[in-house]
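Work Package 3 (structural annotation) set out to generate three-dimensional models for the target panel prioritized at the project kickoff. During this period the team completed the workflow that converts sequence records into C-alpha cells, so that structures can be stored uniformly alongside our sequence database. As a representative example, we reproduce one entry of 589 residues exactly as it appears in the project archive.
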Amino acid sequence: MSVRLRQVRYQSSTVIRIPGSNIYRLGDSNFASPVFSNVTWTAKDGESWAVIGAGSNQKTALLRTLLGHFRITPPPAPSEGGLFPFLAQADPPRDPHTNVALVSFAHRPRTSGTGFYDYTARYGAVREEDRITLRESMFGDHDYLNLRPNKPEDQVSKSSEELAVEERKKALFEEMVERLGLSQLLDLPLVALSNGQTRRARIVKALLARPELLILDEPLTGLDVSNRPKLLDILHNLHVARNPRVLLGLRLQDPVPEWITHLALISEKGVITGQKDIVLEAEAKRSVREERDSQSRSSNASSSLSGSGRSTVVDLKNVSVTYGPRQVLKEINWTIREGQRWHLRGPNGSGKTTLLALLTGDHPQSYTQLGTSRHLRLFSRPRSRIPTPHLRSLIGVVSPELANAYPRRAGVSVWEVVGTGFDGAFVPGGLDGVGHGIDGPLSDEQRRWRVQRVREVMSGLGPSSWAPKQLHDPTADSQTDVDTHGGKLKASDVTFAERDFADLAAGEQAIVLLMRALVGRPRLVLLDEVWSGMDDSMVRAARAYLRDGGGVDDDQAAVVISHWEEEVPWNTGDGLRRISLEDGVATCS
C-alpha cells in the first residue's frame, strides 16, 4: 500500500491472546453453560487469521467477544497485555474501544428499527430523501473529503499535523474507492446501488476510521466473482502493511483466501485454532462428507423439471429500465414457466436487483412496460391489472431488502411470521395466525389448510431438521411429537414456533423468512441471497427441503439469485436454466 496513516511503535508481536478461557454471555454466572469452553487463541503479527464457523451465529459471537460483548473467564492477564497485547504495549498505548472495529455483513443493521419500512423506494429514487448519494450517506461526516464547504476558521483551528493526517486519509479514500470500483458510483443515489456496491463502500468507511485491527464478518457475502479477488487482494495488502491488521469471519462454505495462514474453526468440539492446513484437514472433512451424502441422496430423488408446455408465470419482451439518461436494463427477453428452475447471476451493479423488482411488481416501471413491441406480463396479465395484495400472495420472496425491512416487533411469534406469507403481509393476523385472506374471510377449510401448511414447513425447516438437541431445547426430547394447532409437531419445532421472531439469531430469522416465502405454495418463488446468515446445518437442511422435501413443487417456478453456482439447490440434471446479466443485458442458457 502506498498510503501510511500512523507511526506507532509496537513492542509486542502478539495481536490477540485468549489463554484457555471460557466465554460467557454478559450477565451469566460461571455456573452457566459457556458459549465457548477452553478457548486458547494466540494470533501474532506475521500471521493472517480467519474465523470460520459451521454456525454463523457462533462465528459472530467469537468475533464480538473481541469487542467486549461477551465475558472471558479467566481474562487475559493485564501484565501480559490483556486481550490485545500489541495495543496495550504500544508506545503510546492504544485504546481497544477506538482501535478495534467490526464491520458485519451477516446481520440486519441495528439501526433499522422494529417496524416495516418501504424497501421498494430504492427502485424509483424520485423522492427528495431518496436523492442522497453514496458520497453523502457514507462519507458525509468527513469534511476533508470536500463534501461540504469548509469554513475558513475550521482550517485555521487545525494543526499542521491534523491537516497532514487528513490529507493522508483523503489519499487513502481516493485510492480505495478507485481500487474497489466505487469512483463512478459516489454521486449516484444510494437507493439505486446494489447490495455488493454498498458493502464495498462500508469497508472504505471503516478504513477511514483508522482502526489498528479491522474485523470483517462475511465480507464476501453478496460480492460477485469479479470483485472478490480485488477485495481480497486489497485486504491482504492492508494486512501485510498492518494498516490495519485484518481479521476475516467466513462461513464454512466460503472459500478460504490463499493468503490466510491460520484459522479459528468453530465446530461441535469447540474452538480449534492453528495453522490453516492442519485445522482444515482435521475438522473440515466431516462437513465435506455430510454435504456429499446430502448431494447423493438428492441426486437419487431428483427429477427433470423442464417446465415445457406449462403455463407462463412471467413473460418479459424487450423490457428496459432507465433512470434519466442511465439505462439499467436493456431489452430483456425472458419467459418463466411453471415447474422451471432458474439461476439468475451477474456482477454487482449488473441489474439483478432491478430485474427482481420487476418480477415482484415492486418497481414503478413495471407498470409502464406496455405495447406490441415490448411488455411485462405477470401470470399472463399486465402489472396494472393485478392488485398488489393479490400479487404478493402469488410470489414468495426472500431477499436482503425484505430481510432488512421485515418488522421485529416484540411479542410476534415465529408461527405468526410464517403465517404472514399466505397473504404476503407484514403484520400477522387472523384466527390461528394464518392471515385474513385476500378475497374475503377464510372458510374453515381454507384456514385448516393454512394451519396444516405452517406445520409442514415448520417440520421441514424447523430445528428438528438442523439443530442439535442441546441447543434448541435442552429439557425436552426433540423427537417427541407434541399436539399443536390441531396437529402434531416435534417438541423442538413447537418451542421454536412459539418464540419471538425478534429474539432469534440472524440465521434463525433467515430460515423463518424462507418458511414464510414457501408456506403459501406461491406460483413463483424468488430466492435472493437466501443462505445469508444461515448456519451450515441450516443450509444443508434448506437445500434438501427445497430439492427433495416438498419445499417447491413441480407446478411452482423458482428463481435463485446468487453469485455462487454451488448455492443453487438444483442442477442441469434437474433442468436448471441460467440467465446472466452484464451491464443490463441478459443472456439465457
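The chain has two domains: 9-293, 312-588.
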